[in-house]
Write a structure and sequence with these properties.
By secondary structure, this protein is α/β, with parallel strands linked by helices. It contains 17 helices and 24 strands. Helix content is about 35%, strand content about 20%. Helix 4 packs across helix 5 and helix 8 packs across helix 9.
């Protein structure tokens, strides 16, 4: 039984080979298909057997199948149970103060475990949820909807932070004002969170009026819950938002855990970490530092893939594929993914995520992919922000008819290289970017280069742009093939 939302969607799959398909039901009037309304009208009204079926269900029954994002390989269908979701609901509603007066903004796809679990929380608390069909419009929708709750991936926070820095980049006075305001704001809000007396002096009021309130406005006003997940968020960005009166609670999880593994509370957080392991669960580290997790929210397994299930679920422990540390107070810190680690031909192990995180501070570099596995040095593929690219072109007094000309202009390439060199100057020698190329094709979910949480699919990018990658390594006598 297949449900479709109309003729256009049905036409996209009508010719597919689906031998098990018996019936197609459309939500709206569609030629040749029965509608959901007609199906409901024709359904038997006798409820005999429903109570018996309900009584026979358990918390361990399959609730849904959510597919992994495919960042490190082919997506797998993760079987999640009712018990796992209920556990997440209980953990979050106990640690967060959410009421029916709150509202939230949803821009991640509901096929993603993070947004799915958060939506369950909102529904259980009776909150209004505003759905944003196009993630590119989130900035505008935040201002319109004014949500008091927001769960996001790092990309949104990175863009707000980068934009704020960019607006003061050309003026020494503006940079000094922002630095002063952030210092004053950090002291004020740390005092408030600690339960001490907030600053009542003219200094904080001035800092808030000149700088801090503008950031809160861009985020849609004050927030009672502002959370981040899906990938690591840099500590400097956490500090930035706290100074503006917005405490970002950074958690950690994965689809296989429904998805929460650890999460801080407004009363117990530590920047640079992803909080403490959630109630009723445990974490342990292998000798290599891999995080292993055990809790009531573990998946039932991968749909139709018993071997893949056995590979990650061993003796009741989920081997996450993430590398981390646990401090003396039980706060978990994620350092990288095992599958993401780059091992150069010189034997150097390099985590690309922190380098890409540094580069995300520049709004011109919308998406980046650090490469270098089994190569002599690191290189970079850049998907630039086109509006920022045109701004740079005008600043450099360039002329162009089409964007492609701008993307290939030597002055643009030099400017991007200059920015990358400046941001990575303090990295170790083996972590330096030796060469880069700029992509004409934008990175998006539609073309398969981004995951639903806006992470770059590194393997797919390297495969799609193999010719450019080969070009960067050809001078080293180290071709890709």
């Amino acid at each position: 039984l297949l449900f479709v939302d109309g003729a256009e969607r049905w036409q996209r799959i009508a010719d597919a080979a689906l031998p098990a398909l018996e019936r197609v039901v459309a939500f709206t009037e569609t030629d040749g298909l029965t509608t959901l309304g007609a199906e409901l009208d024709a359904a038997p009204s006798d409820d005999t057997g429903v109570e018996e079926r309900l009584a026979a269900t358990t918390g361990d029954d399959l609730a849904t199948i959510v597919y992994t994002s495919g960042t490190t390989g082919v997506p797998k269908g993760v079987m999640l149970s009712h018990r796992g979701f209920v556990h997440q609901l209980e953990v979050l509603t106990r640690s967060l103060e959410i009421s029916p007066e709150d509202s939230s903004l949803c821009f991640l796809p509901l096929s993603h475990a993070l947004e799915r679990a958060w939506t369950f929380v909102l529904l259980s608390c009776g909150c209004l949820n505003t759905y944003v069909p196009d993630p590119k419009t989130v900035a505008d929708q935040l201002v319109l909807a004014q949500p008091t709750l927001l769960v996001s991936v790092p990309r949104l926070y990175e863009k707000v932070y980068a934009t704020a820095r960019e607006r003061v980049a050309g003026s020494g006075l503006k940079r000094r004002i922002m630095a002063w305001a952030l210092k004053v704001g950090a002291a004020h809000h740390r005092a408030v969170i600690a339960g001490g007396p907030p600053s009542t002096g003219v200094g904080y009021r001035l800092a808030d009026r000149l700088v801090l309130s503008n950031i809160r406005t861009a985020m849609g006003g004050p927030k009672s819950v502002l959370a981040c997940g899906g990938a690591p968020l840099r500590q400097e960005i956490e500090e930035f938002f706290l100074a503006c009166g917005l405490l970002v609670l950074q958690g950690y999880g994965l689809t296989e855990a429904s998805p929460l593994v650890s999460f801080p509370s407004p009363q117990a957080y530590r920047f640079g970490t992803v909080g403490q392991v959630i109630e009723g669960a445990r974490v342990r580290l292998t000798g290599e530092g891999e995080i292993c997790y055990q809790g009531p929210n573990l998946m039932l397994g991968y749909w139709g893939q018993p071997e893949a299930t056995a590979d990650v679920l061993r003796e009741g422990w989920l081997h996450t594929g993430d590398i981390g540390e646990v401090d003396a107070d039980g706060y978990l810190k994620i350092t990288d993914r095992i599958k993401d680690l780059i091992v150069t031909s010189n034997g150097k192990n390099i985590a690309p995520a922190p380098i890409e995180g540094l580069l995300a501070a520049d709004p011109l570099l919308e998406y980046t992919a650090v490469l270098g596995d089994n190569r002599p040095y690191l290189t970079l593929l850049v998907s630039p922000s086109l509006p920022h690219l045109e701004d740079i072109g005008r600043q450099l007094q360039l002329t162009w008819e089409h964007r492609d000309e701008l993307l290939h202009h030597p002055a643009i390439l030099d400017e991007i290289k200059r920015r990358v060199d400046a941001m990575t100057a303090r990295l170790a020698a083996h972590e330096q970017i030796r060469d880069l190329r700029v992509m004409i094709e934008e990175f998006s979910q539609e073309n398969g280069l981004l995951t639903p949480t806006l992470k770059v699919k590194r393997c797919e990018v390297e495969k799609r742009f193999a010719a450019l990658v080969d070009e960067m390594y050809a001078k080293a006598g180290h071709p890709r093939h």
